[in-house]
Amino acid sequence: MIRSRSILILLLSLIIFSSCITDQKKFNGQIITEFPTPIELKGDRVFEDELGLISIKVIDSLTVISTMKKDIIKVYDSNQHLISGFGKKGRGPNEFNMSPVIQDGIKTRNFIRIFTLDQQLLTLSSIDIKTSIDSSKVSINKRYELPRELSGTIDIFYVDSTEIIGTYDDRFSKRLNKKRGGFYYHPRTDNFNTFPLFNLTMKPYEVMPATNINARSSDISPNRSKFASVMMHYPGLEIFDLNSDINDNPKRYMLDSDPPSVVYDLNTFKEDGYLAYYLDVEASDNYIYLLYLGNKLDDRAHQTYIKVLNWKGKPHKQYLIPSKYNLSMISVDEKNQYFYGLSYSNDAIYKFEYNSNE
Which Pfam families match (predicted)? Predict the structure, then answer.
């Protein structure tokens, strides 16, 4: 009898353990699909003199663009008038090894700063915009040298003087967990903590496809209280409250009522057989703006959508962007109610006016 009971307990334990493993492989997000009827937007090309476009960021009344041109960083006012250009490629002081992506931008009462990441040197630079404009040279007020364990850093954002948050992929460097995850870096102590992000599985495993299938875009709210990360090849959105324990997060939202399997076939992926769901995310204090493709990535133009929801997962608006614009990245000016959309294939930036009350 005792032996039978022991066997029963063992079987129950195995069932529970197996169930836990299965649950860990599921996204388990609240399903959100009921976005309002899309409103079609028409755009006008702006910043036409800018070519070799890399990234765009609206910060208060300024628009900051990074390019491959001689002046790598350009600053425009809210009327799209050029204020200044600065920055050049090189290995000297305050020069860029390569044209940077503008990772983050922050405005306080006293300054406006942008943040760029040198992935080779693993250095985050805080660039003071006003001083750079006045001198027509890059003015770096602070550099943060990240630990070598974070050499796979993808996105990175300034929280405050004590914390920096970001995402990494460890499949190549193999210094952490060989997955894509998130981290908190503490500059004053030069320590960091990691937290998990949902990962898709590639079978059979191959490092580059496994890295690409887990591509995602992230952003932080301007008040630095919330962090959003959306997956490219899966309709999954993860939201973190930065005022609570990061390990008690995230809140997950499934943005499709019929999601694909979380296990992807290597050969199908190599044949470009999977959809690209979300290309970019932009965060405000009130809303999350998601650039949705819902098609395969190729050189043909596809219409895109900007899906808007609040931080509690409630759908707010949906906008249709016609295929001729072929957007790759967005930046939002809520105050003046327009989107900037950057197209890599067109090497162009477009301005879309919207009315949030429609």
Answer: TolB_like
312 with 241: CB under 8 angstroms? Answer: no
**Is 88 within a domain?**
yes
Cβ pair 141, 127 in contact under 8 A: yes
Are 114 and 101 in contact, with CB atoms under 8 Å apart? no
User: What does pTM read for this prediction?
Assistant: 0.91
d(CA 216, CA 238): 10
Tokens of residue 64, six digits:
């900051």
DSSP 2: H
The verdict on residue 115 lying in a domain is: yes
What is each CA distance from 340 to 261, 323, 351, in whole angstroms? 33, 15, 5
**Separation of alpha carbons 132 and 128, rounded Å:** 6
In angstroms, the CA 135 to CA 103 distance is 23
User: Is 105 inside any structural domain?
Assistant: yes
CA 191, CA 185: separation in Å to the nearest integer?
A: 6
Q: What is the DSSP string of 89-141?
A: BSSSTT-BSSPPPEEEEEE-SS-EEEEEEETTTTEEEEEEHHHHHHHTS--EE
Domains contained in the chain, number: 1
Q: What number is the average pLDDT over the span 218-236? A: 97
DSSP 157-196: EEEETTEEEEEEE-TTT-SS-SSEEEEEEETTTTEEEEEE
Q: What is the pLDDT of residues 84-108, one digit of tens each?
A: 999 988 887 888 988 899 999 999 8
Nearest Cα to 308, choosing from 243, 352, 242? 352
